[in-house]
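Recap for those who missed Tuesday's class. We walked through two folding examples back to back. For each one, the amino acid string is listed first and its predicted structure tokens come directly after. Nothing is annotated here on purpose, so try labeling regions yourself before you check the end of the notes.
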Amino acid sequence: MRRISWMLAMVMCVTLLLAGCGKKSADDVVKDLSDVVSDLNSYHGTALMTLHTGDTPQEYKVDISYRKPSYYRIAMTNEKKDVTQIVLRNDEGVFVLTPSLNKSFRFKSDWPNNQGQVYLYETLVRSIIGDASRQLASDDKSYVFDVAANYNSHALVRQKIWLSKNNYAPTQVQVSDANAKVVVDLKFDQFAFDTKFDKDSFDMERNMASGKTGKGNEGTPSAGAVDSSGQLDPTGTIDGTTGVISGEQGQVQGTAGEKAQQPSGEASMDGAATGDTSKPDSADATGSTDTEAKPDTAGNTETQQQTPGASDAATGTSAGTDAAEAVMGEFGLIEPSYTPAGVQIKDTPELEDNGTHAVMLRYSGTYNYTIVEARPKDRAVSLAAGELVDIGGSFAVLTGSEQQTMTWMNDGIEFRITSADLPVSEMIQIAASIQDQSGK
């Protein structure tokens, strides 16, 4: 009997020893992750992202594509609103596309190298490797890391990252606030390394076309013609009606009779004094006139008018214009549900109705800023230095230095927050709080 007990004890010891030898430590996994990233050529994944930032959870389908060295395509779809937004990086720059509305931003940026994104594999691995106080747990299928969140928001503090034990592919990410409440929950449906993409999968025109045909979430969208689109101007403010850009920082001429906010935080309303509030006849008649803004050697902005024919030849026909015009109309006054401490709304000055149904909200106090909301028909075409910002379920473009402007589209409405003293983290919270609001 003693002999049997002794043998059983030996078997258990050997089993535990073997099990211990097969268990990887956090350092072992980190070393493996470093090797995976260094050998990374491409990947494609799809996920369901749930945001718990408002009264009701908001769900978005996310389609992520990457190809070495720096090609990215992120398609984010709000099925409830039936709107897909695409972030694209290729040799021409970084684009934010809303194909269904025939709208796009184009700008120079190091994105995503200069900031993290919860749905990008490199960001997740970098978070794990960079946190010396990382904690590792595991279940039957996954390694679960608990690390610091390194996103551009003070509200996001910690994150848990689930990685498959088979190949270190991500399966889930939960980002929490200071109260340990899950704010972002990302669950991957599938994720594959070494994905083969079509040659033009990261082409702007192809993605604009695919988004209009209901294929905006495909990792390798079908090719097709593209409608004309415009982009962001170097000042960080957009003239959606006239396409006239002022070379002076932060100023747009003829946009609903207003100027962008001045460094003091106050907005000047003397846009009519510029004498540039009229809409070009060609744009009025066809809606296809583009204005290309090109910086000169001194860093100023030079505007060049393109003929309608030249614009169509360069960017395609404007078949999507009718769809964009179909949603034109008054949308009321959309107020953010979040306001920074010590800030209150100052006034909502009336703007001249020039077809964009633009409205303005001015805030003052601890920070001074304005929010302009409009439905622009056309857009100025340019390539400017800027930064891509994830505002939760949508993407914004941040431009300017001393005075900054954050611009984004939501439900066919263009929003601009402009301020000289409002931190970017506060801009993000304000923008995120607008996402599910309706006009009053």
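Example two. Treat it independently of the first, because the proteins are unrelated.
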Amino acid sequence: MELAEEPTIPNPGTGEVRIKVLAAGTGFTDSFIRRGRYPDFKGPLPFTPGCELVGVVEKTSSDVVSPREGQIVADLCVVGGYAQYAIRPARFLVPVPDGVDAAEAVCIPLAYLTAFQMLTRYRHLFPGETILVIGASGTVGTALLDLSRHFGLKAIGTCSAANLSTVDRFGATAIDYRAGDFAASVDKLTAGRVGGAGVDAAFDAIGGSHFDRSFACLAPGGILIGYGSQTMAIGRENMIAAGLGLARLKLWGALSFLFRGRSAIWYSITDRRLSHPEEFRADMAALFELLRNGAIHPVVIDREPLTAAKNVHARIDAGGLGGKIVLLPWLASQAAV
């Protein structure tokens, strides 16, 4: 990765707007794309990373009615966020309420929207029910914990020993996944559950063969939602292993009657945005209201200039961050980090 300067600022085309980027989110998805292993982006090189952004609409095409110039908006752009300006289609942009911190707002389009839709769009979870979050100290993991607390759910989260306190601060029960078999720990923690031990829903971004372990943690009637393939992204498993993991999800989903009502499903935020655009906008708006009202609290651990992007990716690849690093393209200090 390197910082590049363009000689001109581009103008929006039909149906597009130009955004002055105030905050660009970073996360494992950006690293996944950089490695060339992300299924939803196979664009040409070089490209500008950055899956999510918040910025002010600086210029619109003549055919664009909304958003208006001067409005703060958020976008799930998949790529293009690590920039001072971005050209984006107007149809997916969602207004950001006044007074919301841009660095916190940029946590919404990917991490919090993923968490919100997985918690609300596939199974109605009642207050007091229990969920399991694999990789609970990551950006989606902390969003799941934050929202589960808001919804009155009990949460169990797996993480490394260094991030146990991150999980604890959300009122969740933390499990050090390196200290033993987390499935056995979940079984002990839920031993007194009416209807049988286990959790009502599990969320797993590891993928591949790891889905087996998460599925084993479900109570009768529980659901596993897979939403990532991190083992493939970092090279621990190949494409075949990742494909077998997806096949297991489909099998468990189709034949849940063979597994005491336990089922499974795959979630892709980009696929769901295309198939349910009205949900995308409505759920984003709901999340921004929760953020504006102080009901949710995204974990922003650092705010860095664009020049720090390469170092930020090294930190993401090392893991264990316990929150989100946000790039601020107009940060006064652009000294190399």
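Answers for example two:
The chain has a mean pLDDT of 91.
The first strand starts at residue 16 and ends at 25.
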